[in-house]
Amino acid sequence: MVKQVAQHGKSRKSAGAATKLFVLDTNVLLHDPTSVYRFEEHDVYLPIKTLEELDNNKKGLSDVSRNARQVSRTLDEIVSSQDDGIQNGIPLTQLSNRLATGRLLLQTEAINHELPSGLPTAKSDNQILAVVLHLQRLNPNRAVILVSKDINMRIKARALGLAAQDYFNDKVLEDTDLLYTGTRELPADFWDKHGQGLESWKQEGRTLYRIKGPLVPKLLVNEFLYLEGAQPLYAIVREVSGKTAVFETLTDYTHPKNAVWGISARNREQNFALNLLMNPDIDFVTLLGQAGTGKTLLTLAAGLTQVLESKRYAEIIMTRVTVPVGEDIGFLPGTEEEKMGPWMGALEDNLDVLNHTESEGGEWGRAATHDLIRNRIKIKSLNFMRGRTFLNKFLIIDEAQNLTPKQMKTLITRAGPGTKVVCMGNIAQIDTPYLTEGSSGLTYVVDRFKGWPHSGHVTLQRGERSRLADYAAEVL
């Protein structure tokens, strides 16, 4: 299958291969307004029906309408740059800053619809298929490929003997199994291969090691390393320079004396997560994991400790995408915070757990503590985030798997000085109809932020909710 664009900057050109002609469906342009520039040396063809559908979608304030207007402006810029007419195509090299070296072709003639009688020509999808059939007949020695986000459209195209494929450029990874987990198990012979010339010293109660060896080039800054066995090692990579790396041992949050708001880590990955959440040098944390792995509980415990005890942050701000799992229940009364209340059941559940850990003071004490905690937690809607700046806040983005990369960028760029952002979610539970595991905003930020000295990521593996929840997650 042909890739439409070099992802992460790697060229996929095959030497001497004939350029292909990609016919774009409207949904590709609405999905990615810059898609005409994403096909490298190949040519891009836009049927007239695509332009008509763009025109029908341009009104409104939704993301689709916004993208339709952006595509129209991009196409206007491309067409206006051509003085000699557009029949032979418009070179994209200059306009795309050499990102694309092919041409943009627009349908400039009427095309007779020669489709099977079962396909009505009044339907716009079928009119685009007729254009692809016509182009294939005109170019028998050239690959003509329909690019569409519509699965049924691609099936119809293949039924007619046409080449069709999805638009891949929005996918961060082809296989989410390759997604960075933030942890690495060291081989059993690690010290044999990396122990030569080992340097070790103490700093602020922690042990640091400087090592050299074959594993060093594969390591990323803030990646967690562990070695089980007779002499276990749990460490985080602090720096990688050339052939040397510096490790630092971790705070053991599994021990009750290091409990965070009464919560101790129950497994290795939870311990790693708390080391990120409690580290003031880490500005951005991503936590992945299935239901019941403790993402929200650990994050809230760390947030409350740093807001109410160490006073590192002024308050906790929590937000999430309001995508219903079943049918929508309609409009909700009240203020912004009250409207967000039903979506924040997870927050209340976890606050109950955190409040019960403080058993002193009886019922009155617990009620007072709960009120104090709730006063320091603000619930905000994503709809009103644009243009805001958060100073010294602990910002939690829950259910982040339902965000697009663009929405994720909008949220993370709200962070002002002294603000920590925590994104958490489960990419196996995407409720938004137009996102996949490969194109989710959460997958996007995990991949793009790995190795940055002020960010960290952990994929939580083991459920700690209950034996019922663990078994259900495994068998259902």
TrEMBL record:
Residues 20-155 form the PIN domain. GO terms for cellular component: cytosol. Pfam families: PhoH, PIN_4. The keyword Transmembrane helix does not apply. Keywords: ATP-binding, Nucleotide-binding. GO terms for molecular function: ATP binding. In the N-terminal section; belongs to the PINc/VapC protein family. Belongs to the PhoH family. This is PhoH-like ATPase.
